[in-house]
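Re: [help] complex structure
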Amino acid sequence: MLVLGIETSCDETSVAVLDGDGRVLSNVVSSQLAAHAPYGGVVPEIAARAHLENLPITFEQALAEAHATVEQIDLVAATAGPGLIGALLVGLSAGKALAFARGIPLVPVNHLEGHLFSAFLRAGGEPALPADFPFHGLVVSGGHAELVRVESDRISPIARTRDDAPGEAFDKVARRAGLGYPGGPVIDRIAARGNGSRYPLPVGRTGDGSNDFSFSGLKTAMLREFQKRDITGEPVDSASLSPDVVDLLASFQRAIVAALLDRVETVHRSAGIRMLAVSGGVAANSELRRTLSEWGEARRLRVLLPERAYTTDNAAMIAFAGLLHYRKNGAPERAAPVARSRWPLGTS
Amino acid sequence: MPEIRPAGPGPERVEHFRSKSEAETEAIGRALAQELTPDDVVYLVGDLGVGKTAFARGLASGLGAVAREVASPTFAILHEYAASDGSIVMRHLDLYRLADRSEDLEVLGLPDAVGGVPIAVEWPRSAIRTALPPTREVFFKRTPDGTRWIGVGRPSHAGSSAAR
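Output below.
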């Protein structure tokens, strides 16, 4: 069995081919990263037009890399939300057309659910790890911070961000420090040579007793620290940063990791986590990976970290989530799926 | 001869507020929400970390949204906030990542795709002013003592919200 996944919900156009065991045969992401850098994180062309231009070549390449033909595809999975309607429609319409022309089922997939299951995907042609319910999922990216409990038939939201997502905080702080885009990997590299406990930075709770995240206070505190040092966002070479700024950035990263760990630990104490599956772009951060792994070892529970290739937006995770749906529920009804700008996790 | 006005935003009347905390910023947003009609377009203008998202959260909760739904739309660009019955009561647009070109706004399907409920817009620049002109502009400034000055203005071209 072969599953074709299509993802066009935001910046990336991606197409992937998986087999029925969740082996990733190909995962092509037409990353526009090279085009982003000169704009300091501003996407020059996020338009639906860009997805439309990227999709055919991404599709051809995904099939070629998987050594598959379109006739061999048995199932199509496409992101149907949440996202920009104009962008979603490109991938979902292509998925619909393919499914209709070939007489095969199409599973509409929630982008966040794709992330949630991405931790189970393995690189190097290995089959996906079996989804072992129930587990807790932590999705941390440029747009999201979501902690959820996942059962075989239900996703229950536990905590989410009330303001900035952690990846967004990384990007905005890096940009204001003159370090370019994307901010996460840049700060990760700088923090590796700094002292993360030098500056204790505030990471707020929401004040209403919930476990929700809040990263805007931390971002504001960093801007204040930059102001004190006359850092205005002029581009700088990360190798020439003063030890003081290196420590400041390391402390910033430490604060984000500490906030995530704090909430995971709180939830573990009250609800008991069996296994934690981490995903999203920030799951590529080396300090977060190390900290959560050590936490899991100390608590004797499994922490599943995603392969770095599946942390950012990609179609392999969409194909996999679609495959899991299909295995559980069979082919969805014939009714044409619609693109949904808003689709909270845990709602059908 | 029509009166010549400055080309900038040039609010006609500005109401001033001072906020000492995120909670106060949110309350000012909640109060403004009571005046809004479904046609209103509220620009939120100010530097990073001055409280634009907190203000938007106030607007959303004042309009009946579940406050927990509100988060920064910088990455997603457009968020829709719903009341507990699932109906959309506000949209929240963030143009931080978009280039200031009208072609780049096409993906948003403006203005049709955002009608029917008030919309808050962060990081508006010139292209959006044509596609989705403001009926209110809220300016945020950090003062030296760390409090925030918030000015709520009605742009001169928007005598009524029917200007949209």
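Residues 2-123+310-329 of chain A form a domain with the Nucleotidyltransferase; domain 5 fold (CATH 3.30.420.40).
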